[in-house]
Amino acid sequence: MNILENYYKKIIRYDLINKFFYNHVHDIPKLKKIILNFGCKSYEIKSIVASFFALELITMKQVILTKSKRVNIVLKIRKGYPVGCMVILTKFEMYTFFLKLLIEIFPNFKSLHVSMKKEIKSFSFILVDLIYFKE
Asked: How many domains does the chain have?
């Protein structure tokens, strides 16, 4: 068991119960999965391959290519062309990556753009440079 997962189960859950008075244990928020996504603005094989391998090095998991769903005339992208890549982290990999974010990467940020959606109960942030990762 990861140290962050253990900390969540032993301490954070009880703190949330005491502070917000949840009726059921199932109502407590929990981390289900982390989705890492790289989108490329231009259709160039070099940029897609670079983001593909960078994401694979950071997560040590197999990466999925995302393809365009419709035609974009401005960017000269046809339907079905690769436009980015993504990885879905769950269980042990998710907690390991989140711990790395909290300890190594977030303290070095100068600015962080965060967008939250209440309906989906998720948030996203934009990483401009990959320099923060040692890999």
From this structure: 2
pLDDT along the chain (135 residues), means of 10: 85 87 82 82 73 83 79 64 83 87 76 63 62 63
- Please check whether residue 96 lies inside any domain of the structure: yes
Euclidean distance between CA atoms 93 and 85, whole angstroms: 18
Tell me how many degrees the CA angle 132-112-12 measures, rounded to the nearest 5. Answer: 90
Q: Report how far residue 44's alpha carbon sits from residue 40's, in angstroms, rounded to the nearest whole number.
A: 8
- The whole model's pTM is what? 0.71
- Asked if the structure places residue 84 within a domain, the reply is yes
88 lies in which domain range?
33-126
Q: Is the alpha carbon torsion for 86, 92, 95, 98 positive or negative? A: negative
